[in-house]
């Protein structure tokens, strides 16, 4: 099927002209709206009314003769041009331009004419935009062009343009004239009369042509049967066009150039300069385009070249798999006057059709680009692949069809590598469109197809597809996932559809090693899922299995629950603790979660955890094979628990620790019982850890009064100075260090009473100096505070006296400034600007509620 851009349709046939007493040969024609004018070789002008009709899908013309006129010169009518705005036709006959009435063909009364004219052209884009005038350029026999403005009954001379040699044919657009002289083409700028030579030609072998193509661009017939495009700047922006010899006429109807010689009418694309169609036609004498319509005349007949609908032209190109040409033609279809919406609808369908052609030829990059730009329905592609469409889909292919591919199998022909490339293309395309507007309403088809492709290829993208918001249905995907042993993906699909027990059943089999899947993350994944599952019965069902596998992981199901989860009886802490007794590591971890993370203040939880910590320490110390590092860590946990908690049963824990060498723990417990003397004696005499003793005083006095803090340090000092201690002299140094410490706090008088009489003043000089400075500073601060309080008191008294100097008089006529009600209460509010209100009406003591005035918030 070859491309067909135009059809040759009779406009006025020979028989019609003969019946209208038409005897001579056609020389020229012009069409304006429904009016067709014919100029003959014997000086007649015929006027016809033609009407374009659509008969059974084909264009046909109906013509009716309106009249004719004999000009009496016995010369051929060389040119005719209708000026509808003036109701005139411009006629060139016997080298003279005259004006006739469009309808009765009578000459104008003024008899205006131009003589010595070889050719004329009308400026469709005149600079002087008077709607009731026409600008023409005439070529004279002498070496000159002239610019005229033609009105209804006058021809006004505007400008002369001298030439180096006579012009044969001209074309004008805006303020540029392109002219074919005797031996060369040239471009003339009207305003300046500047002439730019273009190129020479052989007038014996070349019929000169000048045809306007676009704004300020002309097509010229050049040497060697070449069509040359030239702009007003004198340059060519398109490659030359090759056409046949013996050229008679040329016309332009976007996006085509139509050329006529003595045997054929050829149609060339202006986009790629290639010939697209050839129509046999002999005896042609005239051809031109009129308002986008092409008319051709032979000696006794007139035809119209009717454009074939762009859709049909493009369809023909696509049928021949000339995709680039079809798209190029489609992109220029909007220049034909088509509305934007209609153009975009047609253009997108053409892109889709072109995409399937590229797809069938394995040009996947081009196909994907066309599918995306053409916004193809993805189901048109998916349905070509066997078993990829959802079972419940009721999709039917586009009508008329976009392609003739029944199935991908026809293109693949049992070639596995080719099949893989087609599947790879589909994966890439679906991934690109999945989250775009093309996927709206089609997410199920896209996701099901992707899942099946991923499952077959064991792609790493399978799991992310199911973890995100997927539209895959169980009925479409279970069999595929089972076939390719994608067990973890199958479990995730069950989970997505709320079938959690089926998902857990698959995961337990994977953990137990009954089935294999490399994409499964192991027991940790199951723990995370159960920790976030709100079906507590199902959690409880699988909890024991997980704990048997790994206590550390299993207890996370209980400790990593969602913060906003509704509590249930099955997961009540007491029930959980009772259940976890079989799992010692898990019960400790769970109690730590309750005490340290949840911060539950229940004595039994704290006591239970402390006892378990203590049992752990005792077990490790009794086992001589235990590592010292493990024992230290266990004791550190125990001490932290004993120190930070105040809720456990101290006597119970102390009873167990006194029987051991756990002196540090006993000291903490005595401290909880407020038996600080015992605690400090353990730290000083048994552990000989003087830093720990000092830290004990600081820790146990936190948040309490200064007197309590001093009491603890006095107890520590008394322990250091206890005369009953055998090696009391060894404690002099730590005692002095304590007295000179910056963190310790003492009552100096009580310290002096405790110190032995044998200690020298020089030994105590640092302590005494600091104590004296501290006492003097305290005394001076007290005096300053006293004086400041006295000054503030005097200021208040002054303010009170000043306020009492101006009385506030209340009577029955005085109302609240805010609510305007009577001031009946003995208490009221008076602002500095004398506004008086109820106490409850005064919202802000610094802002007057009536005037809004802001009073100073700083004390005077």
UniProtKB/TrEMBL annotation:
Its main location: cytoplasm. GO terms for biological process: autophagy; endosomal vesicle fusion; intracellular protein transport. GO terms for cellular component: cytoplasm; membrane. CHCR repeats lie at residues 561-725. This is CNH domain-containing protein. Signal peptide: none annotated. It comes from Patella caerulea. Residues 23-294 form the CNH domain.
């Amino acid at each position: 099927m070859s491309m067909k851009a135009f059809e040759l349709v009779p406009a006025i046939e020979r028989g019609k002209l003969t019946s209208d007493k038409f005897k001579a040969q056609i020389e020229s024609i012009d069409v304006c709206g429904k009016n067709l004018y014919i100029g003959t070789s014997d000086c007649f002008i015929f006027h016809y009314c033609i009407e374009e009709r659509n008969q059974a899908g084909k264009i046909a013309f109906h013509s009716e003769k309106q009249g004719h006129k004999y000009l009496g010169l016995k010369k051929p009518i060389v040119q005719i041009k209708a000026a509808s705005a003036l109701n005139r036709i411009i006629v060139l006959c016997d080298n003279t331009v005259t004006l006739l009435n469009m309808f009765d063909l009578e000459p104008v009364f003024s008899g205006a004419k131009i003589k010595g004219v070889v050719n004329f052209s009308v400026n469709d884009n005149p600079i002087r935009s008077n709607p009731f005038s026409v600008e023409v350029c005439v070529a004279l026999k002498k070496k000159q062009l002239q610019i005229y403005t033609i009105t209804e009954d006058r021809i006004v001379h505007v400008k002369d343009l001298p030439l180096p040699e006579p012009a044969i044919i001209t074309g004008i657009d805006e303020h540029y004239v392109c002219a074919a002289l005797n031996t060369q083409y040239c471009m003339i700028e009207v305003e300046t009369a500047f002439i730019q030579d273009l190129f020479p030609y052989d007038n014996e072998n070349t019929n000169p042509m000048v045809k306007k193509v676009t704004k300020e661009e002309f097509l010229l017939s050049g040497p060697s049967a070449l069509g040359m495009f030239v702009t007003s700047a004198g340059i060519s922006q398109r490659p030359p066009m090759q056409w046949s010899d013996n050229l008679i006429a040329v016309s332009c109807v976007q996006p085509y150039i139509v050329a006529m010689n003595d045997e054929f009418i050829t149609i060339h694309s202006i986009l790629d300069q290639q010939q697209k169609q050839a129509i046999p036609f002999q005896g042609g004498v005239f051809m031109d385009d009129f308002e986008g319509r092409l008319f051709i005349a032979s000696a006794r007949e007139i035809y119209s070249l009717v454009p074939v609908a762009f859709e049909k032209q493009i369809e023909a190109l696509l049928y021949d798999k000339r995709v680039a040409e079809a798209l190029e033609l489609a992109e220029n279809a909007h220049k034909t006057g088509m509305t934007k919406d209609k153009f975009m609808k047609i253009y997108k369908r053409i892109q889709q059709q072109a995409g399937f052609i590229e797809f069938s030829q394995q040009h996947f990059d081009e196909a994907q680009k066309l599918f995306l730009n053409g916004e193809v329905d993805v189901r048109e592609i998916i349905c070509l692949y066997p078993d990829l469409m959802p079972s419940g889909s009721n999709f039917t292919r586009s009508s008329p069809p976009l392609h003739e591919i029944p199935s991908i199998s026809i293109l693949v022909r049992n070639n596995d590598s080719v099949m893989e490339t087609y599947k790879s293309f589909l994966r890439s395309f679906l991934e690109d469109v999945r989250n775009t507007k093309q996927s709206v309403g089609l997410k199920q088809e896209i996701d099901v197809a992707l899942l099946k492709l991923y499952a077959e290829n064991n792609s790493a993208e399978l799991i992310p597809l199911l973890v995100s918001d997927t539209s895959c249905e169980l009925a479409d995907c279970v069999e595929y996932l089972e076939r390719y042993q994608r067990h973890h993906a199958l479990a995730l699909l069950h989970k997505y559809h709320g079938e959690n027990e089926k998902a857990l059943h698959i995961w337990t089999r994977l953990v137990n090693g009954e089935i294999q899947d490399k994409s499964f993350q192991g027991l940790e994944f199951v723990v995370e899922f159960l920790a976030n599952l709100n079906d507590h019965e199902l959690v409880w069902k699988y909890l024991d299995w997980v704990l048997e596998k790994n206590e550390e992981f299993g207890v996370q199901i209980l400790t990593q629950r969602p913060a906003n989860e509704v509590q249930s009886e099955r997961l009540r802490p007491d029930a959980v603790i009772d259940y976890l007794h079989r799992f010692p590591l898990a019960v400790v971890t769970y109690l730590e979660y309750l005490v340290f993370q949840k911060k539950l203040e229940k004595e039994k939880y704290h006591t239970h955890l402390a006892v378990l910590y203590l049992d752990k320490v005792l077990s490790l110390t009794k086992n001589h094979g235990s590592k010292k590092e493990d024992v230290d860590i266990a004791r550190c946990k125990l001490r932290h628990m004993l120190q930070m908690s105040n809720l456990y049963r101290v006597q119970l824990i102390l009873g167990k620790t006194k029987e051991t060498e756990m002196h540090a723990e006993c000291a903490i417990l005595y401290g909880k019982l407020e038996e600080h003397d015992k605690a400090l004696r353990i730290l000083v005499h048994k552990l000989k850890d003087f830093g720990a003793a000092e830290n004990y005083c600081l820790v146990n006095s936190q948040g309490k009064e200064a007197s309590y803090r001093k009491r603890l340090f006095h107890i520590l000092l008394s322990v250091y100075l206890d005369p009953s201690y055998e090696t009391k002299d060894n404690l002099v140094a730590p005692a002095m260090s304590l007295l000179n410490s910056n963190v310790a706090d003492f009552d100096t008088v009580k310290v002096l009473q405790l110190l032995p009489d044998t200690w020298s003043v020089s030994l105590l000089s640092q302590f005494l100096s600091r104590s004296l400075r501290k006492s003097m500073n305290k005394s001076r601060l007290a005096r300053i505070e006293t004086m400041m309080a006295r000054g503030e008191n005097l200021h208040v008294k002054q303010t009170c006296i000043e306020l009492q100097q101006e009385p506030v008089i209340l009577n029955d006529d005085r109302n609240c400034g805010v609510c305007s009600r009577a001031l009946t209460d003995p208490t009221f509010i008076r602002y500095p600007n004398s506004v008086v209100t109820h106490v409850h009406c005064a919202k802000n003591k610094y802002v007057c509620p009536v005037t809004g005035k802001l009073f100073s918030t700083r004390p005077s």
